[in-house]
Each structure stands twice: as structure tokens, then as C-alpha cells.
Amino acid sequence: MRRLPKSYPFAFLIAALAILPLSVLFVLAGDSAEFFDTHNLRVLGNTLALVTLTIVGATLLGVPLAILTTYVHLPWRKLWLILLAAPLAMPSYIGAFTLYFALGPGGEIESLLGIPTPSIEGLWGSALVMSLYTYPFVMMTTRASLLSLDGSLINAARTLGMSLPASLLHVVLPRVLRSIAAGALLAALYALSDFGTPAILRLDTFTRVIFVEYNAFGLSQAAMLSIQLLVIVGLVLFVESTIKGNTERPGRPLCLWPARWQKVLMLGATLPIIILAIVLPLAIFVVWLIREGVGNFDISYAWNSAYASLLAALAAVILAVPVAHAAISGKAGRLMERVTYFGFGVPGIVMGTALVYVGLQLPVLYQTLGLLVIAYVLRFLPLAVGSVRTTAERLDPSLVKAARVLGASPREAFRRITLPLTYRGMVAGAALVFLEAMRELPATLMLGPTGFETLATYMWRVYEAGYFGMAAIPGLLLVLLSGLGLAIMLTGEGRSGYAMKEE
Amino acid sequence: MLTVTDLSVKYGNTPVVNNINLALGDDEILMLVGPTGCGKTTILQALAGLVPISSGSIELGHWQATADKNVPPEKRNVGMVFQDFALFPHLTVQQNVCFRLKNTAMADYWIELLRLDNFRDAKPDRLSGGQKQRVALARTLAHEPDFVLLDEPLSNLDAAFKDSLRWEIRQALKAAGVPAIWVTHDQDEALSVGDRVGVLNKGVIAQLDTPEKCFSEPTSRFVARFLGDASFMPGQRKQNIVSTRIGQAPGNTTDTRAEHVDLLLRPDDIALTVNGEHCNGSVDWVRFEGGTRLCAVTLDPIENESPIQLKIRVSHENAVQPNERVQLQIDTTHPLATFART
Amino acid sequence: MQRRAFLQSLAGVGLLAALPLSIHRSMAQTVQAMSVEQLPPLKGDLTLYLGRGEGGLYENVLNAITKRNPGLNLQIRRGASAALANTLVAEAQAGVKRADLFWAVDTGSIGMVTDAGLAKPLPKDLIGQLTPGFQYPQWVPVTGRVRTLPFNTQKLQANQIPDDIMALADSDLSIGWAPAYASFQSFVTAMRILEGEKATTNWLRGVSRHAKSYAGELGVVMGVERGEVDVGLANHYYTLRLKAGKPNADVDLAFTKNDAGCLVNASGIISLSDTDLTTNFMRYLLSHEVQSYLASEAYEIPLVDGVAAPSALPALADLSPPEIDLRKLADMRPTLKLMREVGVL
Fold this sequence. Notes:
The complex is a heterotrimer. By secondary structure, chain A is an all-alpha fold. Chain A has helices spanning 7-29, 38-71, 77-85, 92-102, 108-113, 122-148, 152-159, 164-193, 196-200, 206-215, 219-242, 260-292, 300-329, 331-340, 342-345, 348-360, 369-394, 397-405, 410-439, 442-447, 455-464, 472-492. Chain A contains 22 helices and no strands. In chain C, the strands form two sheets. In chain C, strands 1, 2, 3, 4, 8, 9, 10 and 11 form an eight-stranded mixed sheet that branches. In chain C, strands 6-5-7 form a three-stranded parallel sheet, covered by helices on one side. In chain C, strand 1 (44-51), helix 2 (57-68) and strand 2 (72-79) form a beta-alpha-beta unit. Chains in contact: A-B, A-C. At the A-C interface, helix 10, helix 16, helix 20 and helix 21 of A face helix 2, strand 2, helix 3, helix 4 and helix 8 of C.
């Protein structure tokens, strides 16, 4: 009989821990009267439409941008990469909120510049905003895959007479499908669990209904709806897992040298994305800042945000290692990994409430930074797991064997071979968790120590009362600090190789 | 007829290939050889249209590519065989070979000619390296290219296959009747397969000629060293005869007419006698090569001359040992290359 | 300017505050709002669960109180009112107690916590300070807010707006509302209690035919000001705040009479610990200074005698709000069911 992989017990424990708060939902939903009514059908339709459109939008934006930043020889390549990944550093609710006030009749753009713009709202508006803020998930996972892909295949297809777009479509796309799906999964889960965007842009989705129920003291009904939402999450996870990938030997990445006008055209095409997702929200903030001043902002909020997020990032990566290892080792491990994804698909306020119940069983932890960090880890663990797993998958197993033959113990082989070679993936995963924890709001409000104010909670506080100007400084700081995390993540991504050197 | 005129390629501001001029006959195989980093793969990529060129032109029949007017790879009707095979992993052998073909007759022809019949439905990851490269070749030739580029096609293969596959590829190219440029860093390959050899050094063609000429009449010490073992023996030229400490030989005058010259000695140009009467050197090392042995001998030092090591090939029956005293004697009648002494 | 004056008056005077004052002596019938100078100093640890933040204005009040009372160690947990109410109930079930006070913006959350039996009874003199109609045994309304009809002044005159909320359903005005917003749901709950389920259903159905939905009532007011709709349904202060930032804004307030349309709701505070400290803290919130400050800066309606309402708003006495026990507004589930049946939620 085959021995169980060593990582299984750890992964099982972590998966069980991840599912624990979800089990609280079943207890809470226990005394709910209504299971499903016809009204929910419309909400279900909206939710599925938003998720589908988000997947489509994020993929349509993310994949070409991944190809652009990976394969095309651009001036200031790193800068473009950072700019195009920057929406990760911006909470989507900020985007939705600023875009809503910037665009449309009577919006900031019209009142400042006199240029009429169409307003964004409803399903299409929500899908646009969601796509703008989730495409970097697809872009990053696809990039990772493209970077390791042997570029000579495209050259082969082209020399056989296939045009470049056709080669990319027929030769590259089928081989990175798995990575695209991994990114699209994150985008879908984000769209499922995000409350702010559909609320601001007035779309009735599951999260919004859950929120309404919750605020009308229908906690059990909210829990019941969350369980229904979990079914959708499970469905999305299942669909993603059916997309097969193939493992192949990594080779030299492709490098394309377009003409100058083509470069200008390509970069020009990215501008609307950058302007909508980054420049416009920041500009709106600056306008408000000038108009309304700073308010009583305390710099310690930024420190609190960074500190808690950093702890969460570290803890998530440490826990991600056994889960990722288990996922590579076998079917059961893969299942354990999948289980950890549920936390990412549940709205923060429900997860927060569930964790209040869990935390109250351990009064020592309740309302401490510790519980908050646990909540972050449970919500954002899949981001770290995905990152670590991808790099670990690419690790040549013969390297570890070589170390063992040279006399290293498994522990030493892990420490000296596996760890340094997957280190970049861990850094990238940690950075991703950091970014998400920085912008997390509901769980932070409910689980942090009393009096613990972060950038996100402060922004929420002033936004709730309509003092937008006061949201400018924390908003800018949040983007700035997240930008740091992003920079770390992109260095963690490692070499972006040119095929310049000859063998 | 493929014509390359003043071709230069730069990566950023770094020149990689400088002023290359080539013209290729109808079914000619040109070997491009040179050390790592000499720009040979870049030339191939430029010819295929995979990297932009910074000046010059590439011309073949109906198209011409210049720095301003790029012709994309798919419009050049070029065939390319890659070092790492570049087979599409998700397609079978048959599908790979038929990649863009509407009529599969050519595919069947090459699959049979290259003995791939039994693997038609296999995926590439089940094939050996040699089989993969034959599939890659079949795929290239089945698409009937106007010219073929081979980028170190044998470097990822076992030595045992290399020799036979080398000839198989040559024969296939000749059968297809297309011009080909074959890049390698292996001097044996360069000399044995091609109709002509181009030796590249730092992005410049050092010599472009038949293999025989390049080997026996190298135009520079670099070419001499790169194509086979080369030793240099100082001597004096009188008329066409160069005299040295170990005998004399007719000197070639293509490179220099100077009086004080270095004579290029290949291992076969010298006779070695063990324990002869007039021993003039001692053996440093001996390498057994099967039918022959290669020896390195350092000549006894004389005043005003730096130590000279010569390489000599002897019959395997000659069981010469390291540290033995030997007598060396130039033993050739054909003219040897000479280089001015600096 | 007013903000600074307020802070000075709270923090600056130490003389009178040093005098111990018997609160019980002031148990007369109607009481003028007390000055903070008359109040005893606060000492000890106090944990406050604060439902929503009101943009730092409640924050300023709390800051001023802690500044005036150096012996007070005030810990604040902020959150959505409903989330904090859920947390309080969960804590009580688990036998964990962290909060001494719960200050919520909506009476629904107050109702949930008092229904769970967590509120401690309050001394009579404290209750007696409040405007009649706002005196409850278990909680203290801090400030009031009135339901209003903000309208676009470019499109409408005040007299074009019905003074009966029920008539709005049959008008041909385009209406902005925020059905998912808690204050709106409280308003519908009041209508349901006052007019009955059938009338409310018809009203919702009627309005929804010419209504546009917004996420929150600030959005409603901004929509009205932009001219997206003619008239909105919103708490009064959003309009006042918008006008404070943009004095020439194209929006003004209209009021209905004697119906849910001019319901006066309140933010309120509950004591969860039976100590003098919690009740004295509440007294600070009802002080003249705090009430005037919230009235002038947050445009909320003061609920003690002797403090003027925001100048842009009619006096509380001139409004004609319906009579209703605000705690009943916590009964929101039937309201949501109703709204959902009509399809507005």
C-alpha cells in the first residue's frame, strides 16, 4: 500500500479549519423559515450573469494583457506591467464608488470639464467595474504560465505559415487554458463575494440580498442565502477543476518585436483600462482632497493596516505550503485544496459573523489581532495556495532527488532546494494576501480588537457619512501601500526572460 | 535563390550581427558555425522574420525584407527546425506533420521516408529525441518551404544518433531540393554535412567557403583553431618553402607573404617516432580515439622562443606513453597555411 | 469655528466640573439641557460599541468627552449597527461581555438588543431630560432625524409636492428611493404599522412604477440634485449636508403631515452595564454642548429642551410627525417580505 504524503495531515487540518466557520452558517440558518422564494430567482439570475460577465471580461482583458506584457518587447516593460497590475492594489468598492461619481450626467467629469459621459450602473456597469478590478488575477496567472512556456512552438507555427494571432490562438491558448481558468476562478469568486460594487452600482446580487437581510436582523435568512451562495461557489470550483492542463517542459519564452506604430497602438489600447481603473479614481480622490481637506486622519491607521495584513500574509503562506504540496500529491489533496477556496467566495460580513461565533468559543482570542489575522488567512488562503502550487508544480522533481542522492535528508532537501526554488511563488502569494487583507472591511470591523482602526475601516467610516474628502488620504495611502505589496509581488514573479542570449 | 545583403541585427544598442552577406544556391546546404554567442541563431531568427533587422536586406524570389519593411514569418514560406524540436505537445505526430496542410500526400511521403509510420498517432512526449527531430523535419519539409533553417537540430540528441541522423537530414534536404542554412557549434558536423561552411566570429563572417578550403586554407587563426586541432610552428619562408625546426613544407600564400611566419600544422601533418635518434620533444598526454591516438608533445625549449606544443595523430598501434621522448618531423606534401608572426 | 468653540467649552472649563454635583436634585419635570459643567467627571474603563461613525462628528463628540475626562479610558468598536447588534447577541449567548454601551444610528438595532434583554434600566432623571415622546425606559434617543422629500428646485416648486405621503403613489413625479437602506425600511415599517399592510403594498407598488433605486439615501439626494429624479425619499440631514458643501445646490426639502412620510426616528444609546459611569456618559451625550454641536455640525435634531434645531429645518414643534413607538420599527421582517412581494427589494 502506498504511503500517504506527509503533507496530508496538515492539509486536512487546514481544510477542516477553513470549513469550520462555514459550518456555523448551517447552525445559524437552522431556524430560517424560507428556503427559497421566487424573488431569489431574479437574484440568482443577476448573480450568475454578473459572474459570467466578469469571467468573460476579466479573461478578455487579462489574457491579451498577459501576452502583451510577457511576449512583446516594450519600452519600460516593468512600468507597464506595474501599471497594468495596479488594479489589484485598488479595492473594487473604491473603483465603483469613484467611477460612479466621476461619470454620468452631473458627475465630476461633467461638472469639472464639461464633457458629458455615460453613467455606469446596473449589470453592465457592475460587470465593467468587476472586470477592471479582477482582470489582474487572470493576467498574473496567465503570465506565470506564458513565462514558462516554450516560445519556439509559436515560431514553429509561424514559420509553417500560420499568422501570429492564429498561432497564439491555436498554439499558445490551449496550453495556458488551465492558468487562465485559475485566474478566472479567482475573478469569479471575487465577483460572487464582493458587496460594495453591486451595491453602489445598484445590482441585486446574492451578496446585496444577504446584506439587506443581515441589516434587517434576518441573520438566519442571511446565513441560508450564504449557503445557497456556497452552492454556486462549489459549482464554479467544480467547473474550474474539470479544465485539464498539460505539463510540459519549460523552454525559452517567446519575444516579439513589433514595429514602432504597432507598439504605440498596443500601448494606446491599454490606456483606457489604466485610466478607468487607476487614474480616474485617484484623480477623483485628489479633487475631493483639494475640495474638502484632510480631516482628522491618524497615520497609525496605515500602520495597523500594514501590520495586520503582513501577519496575515506570512501566516497564509506558511499554511499554504502543506496545502499546495498536498494538492500536487494526489486527488484527496486536491480536494483539500479546493475546500480552502470556499472562504474566498463567502461575503465578508457573513464570514465575519460566523467567525464571531467561532471566536466566542475561544474568549482568549475573541477581539484580538490574532483572530483578525485568522479571519484574513481563512478568507484569502486560496490566493497564497494558488501561487505556491503553481511554482511548486514547475519544480523539477529530479532536483530534490539529486539533493537526496547527495546525502541530504528530506528536511534538508526541502530547506535547501524546494524552499529557495519556490520562494518567489511564496513571496507572490504573500503579496496577494497582503493586498486583499489591506482592502478587507467587514471582517476587520467585526473581529479586530476594539479601537483597532485601519485604512479600510476609516474610509468606510467617513464614506458612510458622506464626507468623501476625508476618504482621499486613506484611499491614496491604501493604494500606495498596496502598490508596495504589488511591487514585491512582481519582483517575486522573477525573471521575464528574453530569448536574447544564444545557446 | 536566397540573397542576404549587408544584414545587421541589434538588440537595443548591442550589435549582434554585422554586415552579413550570403547567397544560397538552389539546393545548397550552408553550415553556419561558430562559438556560443557569435550570433548564428540570431541570423536564423532574422532570416525567419522572428527578430527585426536593423539594416540590410533579405531577398527570396517574390519577397524582400528590409529594416523598414518587415515580412512576417508566415509570409516568407520558410521552414525551420528547432533545437528543442518545437513539436506541438497536444497534437499527434500525424497532426503535427499535417499542421497547415490541406493535402496530406506530402506528409505521408515524408512520414514514410523518415520511417515515422509506426508513430503516426503517438503524442510527441512518447517519442525519443531522434524520432522527435525526424518528426520536426518531416513537418518542415511537408509544408514545402522555399528554404529551410536548422537551429542546432542535433544538439539535444544522444551522440550515438547524431551521426546517422546528420546524414538522414542531409539526404532529406537534398531529396526535397531546397536550400538550407544549418547552424551548429559542432565542427565535425560543420565540415561533414554542408556544401559550404560559414565560420562566424562575434557577429561577422570570418570565412565562407567549401569545407575543404575552410579546413586547409583558413583565412585566420580563429578559423584554423575553430575547425579542428591546430598547432602553429614558427618558421622562415624562402620562395614558397617554409623551414622550421622540425622540417619544411610548402607554404600557402593566401594569408601572407611575410618572411617570418607561423605554419599551421594539423595533427596529420606531423610524423612521430618514439625513442628516435634525434628526439626533439616529450609527450604531455595521449588520448585514445579508437583507430588512432592523439598526442600532445612539447618541443624541447630553445632560446628566444616560447614553449611550443604540437598535436599529432598516430596509429593506434603506436603505443606511445606520456613523458616518453619522441622525435617530430613535418610529413606532408600539400601546401600548409601560413600566418604572419606578430 | 463652531467646532473649535465646542471643543473649548468642553475641555477648557475645569472649575465647575470639579464640584461634585448631585444629579438627583435635578429631577424636576421638564429640565433644560444641562451644561457639561454641571456633570460629574467620568472615571474608569468604558467600552462603547458605536454603530456607524457619522463621519467623525460622533467621533469629535467622543474625543471631546475623553479630553475633558482624563480619567476615562474609552474603547470604541465601530461597525454597522446591525452587525454590532448581532455581535452583542452572540456575545450574550456565549456568556462573553465586552461592551458597556451600544450607540446605534437606527432604532432597529436598539430594538434587537433590548428584545434580547441586554439593556439595563435607566434612571428616571435621565429619561426625563428628553423631549416628551422620546422617553423610553431602556434606551436613550440621542438625536432625531426626520423623513423628508428632497426635491429638485429647478424642476419643482414646494407646493407641487403632496403633503400626504400616500398621495405620492398616484402623482406623476419621478421619485428616487433607496429600498435597501435601513432608514427607508424603518419608514416603510412605520407606514405598515400606521396604514396597514394593504395600503402599504399599494403604495409601494404605485411608487415603484415611477421610482429609481439608489444604494443609499445620500445617493438619492445627489440624484435629486443632479435632476435624475424630481423628488426623493430620504432622511433630512443628507440634504442639509449636501447644501452645506454646495450652497447653491438645486435641492430643497418638503415635508408631509401626520404620516410615515415625516416620521421622526432617532439614534439611540443603550446601557449594557448597570453602573453610574454608563449613565453619566449618557448624560454627556444629552448635554447642551453635545446636542448643539450635533445639531449645528451633523444637522441632526436635538432631543432635549433648550437646544435649537438646525436652522435650515423647521422646529420639531412645527413638524407633525406620526405618533409611534420607535422600538416597534425593529419589526422589519414583515416589511421586507412585503417589499419583496412587490418586487422593490
